[in-house]
Amino acid sequence: MMRTFREQAMIKQLQQRLRRDPDDFEAWHELGHLHEESGNLRLAAQAYEMSLKNSRSWYTYRLCSWHRLGHVYDGLNQPQKARKAYEQVIAVLPDDACALAGLGWIHAEQGRPEIAVSYYTRALKADPQDPDVCNCLALVYESIGAKDRALLLYHQALEIAPDHEHSLWNRARLYEELGDFPQAKQAYQTLLSSHPEMADAWKKLGFVSMQLQDWPAAQSAFQNAMKLAADDAPSF
Q1: 100, 134, 164, 210: least CB-packed within 10 angstroms?
Q2: C-beta of residue 206 within 8 angstroms of C-beta of residue 227
Q3: Number of domains present in the structure of the chain
Q4: How does DSSP classify residue 235?
Q5: Domain holding 186: CATH number?
């Protein structure tokens, strides 16, 4: 609650600044950030847009506002506006990994995997240590049938961040889909060693163990899945 009160006080202060000077681009940007942090994405978008309307705004503020607008409009499920925002960044900084990854995400979501691959590849070149980009690029490769490349990228993501949950899950899932049950079992076990709370992973491990006719392992995995499900059940 204290944080909420503090945020409200900061918002009031910024609004007072803007009543005195409606062209205060710094105040608009800070207001957008506060709204974004509190989950008010529509108000955040409006504030960032107002920050950009002032032609006097500093170069760094404009770039940061375009960045944040891309994220906010993506969160609001407005891909065209998000795409425009990221393209504004790329026009100035062609190797900006965040904006490139944002464009990759948008094109992937809109069914343009080849373009998505291009943007994600550029993003990974700009920041080779980003496991999220590796994971997203792998998913796009999966969607076009390049499963071997996808596996390599999941492994690459896990070399960067061994506990990366999405890559751990996707690697195990893909091994299972490919029918490589020994590798799938090992991959699910690795996932669960880092994330033992994942009931779905225990279920998957159970099914994979059944494929391998490892009945004790299957029974143990299903028991763990049921225990987690029972722990999550609401009490009345």
Answers
A1: 210
A2: no
A3: 1
A4: P
A5: 1.25.40.10
The model's pTM is 0.86
C-alpha to C-alpha distance for 26 and 11, rounded to whole angstroms = 13
Return all residues near 126 (Cβ < 8 A) that are at least 6 apart: 95, 96, 97, 100
CA atoms of 70 and 44, how far apart (whole Å): 11
- How does pLDDT run across 116-142, given as a tens digit for each residue? 999 999 999 999 999 999 999 999 999
**Could you tell me the residue range of the domain that residue 202 belongs to?**
171-228
pLDDT in tens, 166-202: 999 999 999 999 999 999 999 999 999 999 999 999 9
**Whole-angstrom Cα distance, residue 176 to residue 193?**
18
Alpha helix stretches (DSSP H) within 21-76: 25-37, 41-53, 59-75
C-alpha 53/C-alpha 66 separation (Å) is 12
